[in-house]
Specification:
Elements lengths: L2 E9 L5 E8 L4 E5 L6 H16 L7 H11 L6 H22 L3 H4 L8 E9 L2 H13 L4 E6 L13 H6 L18 E3 L2 H19 L5 E4 L6 H11 L6 E3 L9 H8 L4 E3 L10 H5 L5 E2 L8 H13 L4 E4 L7 H13 L3 E5 L5 H6 E3 L2 E3 L2 E3 L8 E3 L1 H5 L10 E3 L5 E2 L2
Parallel strand pairs: 4-5, 4-12, 5-7, 6-17, 7-8, 8-9, 9-10, 10-11, 11-12
Antiparallel strand pairs: 1-2, 2-3, 4-15, 13-16, 14-15, 17-18
Helix pairs in contact: 1-3, 2-3, 3-11, 7-8, 8-9
Bound molecules: D-gluconic acid (GCO) and magnesium ion.
D-gluconic acid (GCO) binds next to loops.
């Protein structure tokens, strides 16, 4: 099993995706997701210029050795570009190994620890009534756990809220905020932490009154708060029994969560922008979080994320893998196989992709009654239609950013 071909495929059906396809001399192929939203081409160049030449002629079955070789030989370790590139190689090699074994990947990872994966979707709205409609639409689609994001009175835009058009078109379920096709410059949004902290508890109070105590609810603060503001939000949401509050403080500062943890029993999740176990070292050891949010795609693939999650398991911390639409179906499938195999699975984020994306990536995972099922096809169970992919060339797209009322750039 010698790697004799490595192709980096860029396609933009509903948004940009970067996929690595490795082929071996005995005709097996594997896929890995290398999508880094808004910085896609940096990973493309990293792969094409620096990684592909190292792969040709290597033994496709040496997954751990290839991982260590790519990580250590670069000398410049970690970081989202490097780790997304390594992740793509790693997942493609696992896909090949599982195909060679004639097994779905989760079997090689130890076999299934559960029958399916509980997933959560994204409800949002500008008013409480819109949020209620969006929650109901999600429930009609089967979702049993729901993230709730709300507009804040006085602010024009806010993270995680569907535009009117996408909300209507997708009946509140599929929305493509942070889409491709944003044009040449990023959208500027506005932010006011005090207004947000006043408003969000009223939203969760209304949602609990409308939907009762049972429904697992989640919320994402998208790294916008200081530790003391985060502590206050955690405390003020305690009566509404959230499944988790995510990314309360900027993720770079692990120590910030010490203060938050001292003040609230709301469960905490962080890590969608982390890339390695080193980013988690302090918060796992000090038990400052309850769920770790890393995606296979951004955290060095199956090989590395499995190690991070095993470390987390020693402290009863569970997985809550990142799964927005900027993770491709290849990345989602990899997450499902890993989530099925590990003991400490918590929940999987799942935003459905659009029809065009589904036409490029032929998927065998399924969605039924709020649960994801990885399927039993050999490998990760996703194939890429190169002709379809070729119909959708790359589109320059940036994530939005925030400014405060006085013009200061704030965390987005
Ligand atoms: C989430 C995330 C995403 C990110 C996006 C950035 O919880 O799903 O916060 O919505 O903003 O992945 O590319
Ligand atoms: Mg998030």
């Amino acid at each position: 099993m010698i790697i004799d071909k490595a192709e980096v495929i860029v396609t933009s059906p509903d948004r940009n995706f970067v996929t690595l396809k490795l082929t071996t001399d005995d005709g097996l192929s594997g896929l890995g997701d290398a999508t880094l939203n808004g910085r896609e081409l940096a990973v493309v160049a990293y792969l094409r210029e620096h990684v592909v030449p190292l792969l040709i002629g290597r033994d496709a079955s040496s997954i751990e050795d290839t991982w260590q070789f790519l990580y250590r030989s670069a000398y410049w370790r970690r970081g989202p570009v490097t780790m997304a590139a390594i992740a793509a190689v790693d997942v493609a090699l696992w896909d090949i190994k599982a195909k060679a074994a004639g097994m779905p990947l989760y079997q090689l990872l130890g076999g299934a620890s559960r029958t399916g994966l509980l997933a959560y979707g994204h409800a949002s709205g500008k008013t409480n009534d819109e949020i209620f409609d969006s929650i109901r639409s999600h429930q009609e689609q089967g979702y049993k756990a729901i993230r709730v994001q709300s507009a804040v009175p006085g602010l024009n835009s806010i993270y995680g809220i569907a535009s009117n058009a996408t909300f209507e078109a997708n009946k509140g379920v599929r929305y493509d905020h942070e889409p491709a096709q944003r044009g040449a410059l990023p959208n500027e949004e506005d932010w006011d932490t005090r207004a947000y902290l006043r408003h969000i508890p009223t939203v969760f109070e209304a949602v609990r009154i409308e939907f009762g105590a049972e429904l697992p609810l989640l919320h994402d603060a998208h790294h916008r708060l200081t530790p003391i503001q985060a502590a206050r939000l955690g405390k003020s949401l305690e009566p509404y029994d959230l499944f988790w509050i995510e990314d309360l403080t900027p993720a770079e500062n692990q120590e910030a969560l010490r203060l938050v943890r001292q003040h609230t029993t709301s469960p905490l999740a962080i890590g969608e922008i982390f890339n390695t176990v080193w980013d988690y070292q302090l918060i796992i050891r000090e038990q400052l979080i309850d769920y770790e949010r890393s995606a296979v795609t951004h955290t060095g693939g199956i090989t590395h994320l499995k190690k991070v999650l095993e470390f987390a398991a020693q402290y009863q911390i569970k997985s809550g893998m990142h799964g927005p639409t900027d993770i491709s179906p290849v990345g989602m499938a990899a997450a499902m196989h890993l989530g099925l195999a590990i003991h400490n699975f918590g929940i999987q984020e799942y935003m459905m992709h659009g029809a065009k994306t589904d036409s490029v990536f032929e998927q065998s995972f399924t969605w039924n009654d709020g649960m994801l099922y990885a399927g039993d096809k050999p490998g990760i169970g996703v194939e890429l239609d190169l002709d379809e992919a070729g119909r959708y060339p790359y589109v320059q797209a940036y994530l939005p950013y925030n400014r405060l009322a006085d013009g200061t750039v704030h965390d987005w």
